Please model this.
Amino acid sequence: MKAARYYDREDIRIEDIEPQELTPGTARVKVAWCGICGTDLHEFKEGPIFIPPHGHPHPISGEDAPITLGHEMSGVIEEVGEGVEDLKVGDHVVVEPYLVHDDVDTSEANMFYHLSPDMNFIGLGGGGGGLSENIVVKRRWIHKIPDSIPLDQAALIEPLSVGYHAVERAGYASEEVAKGKVALVGGAGPIGLLTAAVLKAFGATVVMSELSPLRRQKALESGVADYALSPAEVDVVEEVKKLTDGKGADVAFECTSVQVVFDTLMNALRPGGVLVIVSIWSHHADLDIHQLVMKEIDLRGTIAYAHSHPATIKLVSEGKVNLEPFITGKIGLEGLIDEGFDTLINRNETAVKILVSPSGEGL
Model:
């Protein structure tokens, strides 16, 4: 089968490889669509980061570069392994792409399995990947979806789960808490937009701060933002205060890893507000501890998701989140670099989510 294989920085090759072996407790998923993630772009330009370099196998997968890429995937069950009783051929599914040790408790009793030692992601740390024609996945990480969710939109459930978990970490993942509250999102990239979509689903008023006119337009046209402000044109802090009778935002989400955005969110929050850091920072940030103390700000981190997929799937299936506006391109595997990575690296404001069809079906 065809697969996108990561060898090293700026060295990704489309190759023919042998499909993975179906083993007890697993199922084979024919990949319908796989999204290109910002993490994939970082691996391409700056990596290896999550990807185990050649000669340094990952302690869970036992694999090192080259590995098959892709972790934002949807597909159809093609084959079911021994012991898997609740999946059948033809089921539509998405994958929660974790690699964790076998002795980690991944039940509802443990909300931190995603923070366990050596955790990595399918499609980064090994275990196959969604940028291939099919993938074998342990039953635990496969989530059935209703046929009412189109498979192309379903490929965005993984990044939407990132947004859901961030909103959950803020304590706003319910209408009882979020309705009528004002949320400020810094950055209208894919994760910022999808975090905003979750906030709107729970009834929050969403203000987005974003330099790019095209991204501000997408935020408004998709309905995930009530207001989209350019920090180059207005004082975001003052505008938020005007919208909140001088109080400030109730909750804010940092989705850029940019210092000035972090500072803006801190200044725009009301006393007792919550600030969630969603983006991955590769550098140190400056923090005004005095302001944090004097405003009693809750500063929280968030990474990926934990038990988030079922709730996220429910939001989409009930029509509370519409993922269709965020699909801005569809390509085949052969166009991964020239049409996919190049667009997202060099013209990123023109695209939100580019989906890849490894088989070429649906293009």
Notes: The domain at 162-301 is CATH 3.40.50.720 (Rossmann fold). The two ends are 18 Å apart (CA to CA). The longest strand covers residues 26-35. Residues 157-170 form the longest helix (14 residues).
